[in-house]
Structure to design on (151 residues):
C-alpha cells in the first residue's frame, strides 16, 4: 500500500478522495452532499492505495501556525479492520510533525473515538451533532507521541 497527498483540486488524487468520501459519508451515512463537499480549498488531501485502487482518504488544513485539523477520514467498507486507517493516521501524524505543527485536532464520530485514542488523541469536548451524527472534538499533542521514525 502507498499513501500520496496533494493540494491540487484538479488532481486525480483529489478525485479519488471524493469518490471514497461519497461512498462512505453520503451513501453509507446519509450525509447530504452539500454538507460533505464543502470548504475544499486550502486542504491537503491524503489517499491510501491498494496497488492502484484508492481505499482510504483524509484531509488536513491549518487552523493556526501550530494547529492542524484532520477531517473527512474515511476507509471503504471492504478495507476496514485491515490496518488501512492505521497506516493513514500514522502518515498524517508524521506529516504534521515534519511540517512543524504542535497539535492535531479532529471532530470524531463517537463510534471512532477508540480508534483515535490508540494514536494519542484525547477527547476535549462534550458530544455535538454534525450532519446529524454525534461527534466529540479530540486533540493530539504531537510532541507527546513516541518517535515514529521506524514506521
Amino acid at each position: 500500500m502507498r499513501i500520496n497527498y496533494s493540494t491540487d483540486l484538479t488532481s486525480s488524487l483529489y478525485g479519488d478522495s471524493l469518490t471514497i468520501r461519497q461512498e462512505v459519508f453520503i451513501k453509507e451515512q446519509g450525509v447530504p452532499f452539500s454538507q460533505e463537499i464543502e470548504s475544499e480549498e486550502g486542504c491537503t488531501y491524503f489517499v491510501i492505495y491498494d496497488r492502484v485502487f484508492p481505499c482510504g482518504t483524509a484531509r488536513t488544513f491549518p487552523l493556526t501556525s501550530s494547529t492542524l485539523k484532520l477531517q473527512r477520514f474515511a476507509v471503504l467498507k471492504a478495507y476496514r479492520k485491515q490496518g488501512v486507517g492505521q497506516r493513514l493516521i500514522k502518515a498524517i501524524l508524521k506529516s504534521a510533525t515534519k511540517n512543524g505543527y504542535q497539535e492535531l485536532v479532529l471532530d470524531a464520530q463517537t463510534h471512532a473515538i477508540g480508534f483515535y485514542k490508540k494514536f494519542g488523541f484525547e477527547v476535549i469536548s462534550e458530544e455535538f451533532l454534525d450532519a446529524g451524527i454525534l461527534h466529540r472534538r479530540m486533540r493530539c499533542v504531537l510532541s507527546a507521541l513516541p518517535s515514529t521514525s521506524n514506521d
Notes: The first strand starts at residue 2 and ends at 6. The two ends are 13 Å apart (CA to CA). The beta strands are 2-6, 44-50, 53-62, 67-75, 103-109, 122-123, 128-130, 133-141. Residues 2-144 form a domain with the Aminopeptidase fold (CATH 3.40.630.30).
